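Predict structure. Input: DUF922 domain-containing protein, 186 residues.
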Amino acid sequence: MKRRLILFGLIIIICTSVTKYTYLENQDDKVLWSSKRKLVWGDFTGAIPETTEPFVKAITGYSIKLKYERLDDIVLNYKVENYFIKSKSWTITTDTQTLAHEQLHFDIAELYARKIRKSFDSLVVKNNNNVYIYNEIYNLNISKCDKYQYLYDHQVSGNFKNQQQWFKKIGTELLRLKKYEYIPEK
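Output follows.
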């Protein structure tokens, strides 16, 4: 899947591609999504590849991470977190338009993290705690997120007007699902 996403970013004329990562070890290498903290170019610390397409100016890496406690095949509780991965993200520009584009990739990942949380909450209400259902919902939404990220790049490819429409669309969706925003415990 990672390879396919990178290839999509190289095929279309756009400034970015998105890659998701599922295992995170280094706490300093990730930024938890928050409405109070936007990405800055200093977050993009990954190595720039020796060869890249001339139109690719930045790459965003993210991970929608699922953690749950279980007993046999029963989910006891869960946590879904959306992280920006610094070491898997790089840039060759400091253009504010490109940074806004990258931020929206991270926001789209948050949108899907919220959709997962919403689906999981509905399972809890129904007393459905089957681990296989949780995994199926998670995997389905990750696949949908990947496709939506590709659609985003494809539709905004150098088109400022379309970019603005996407900002509005994703902002509206995040607001609609505000109830499912992850707020870490202090």
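The chain has a mean pLDDT of 86.
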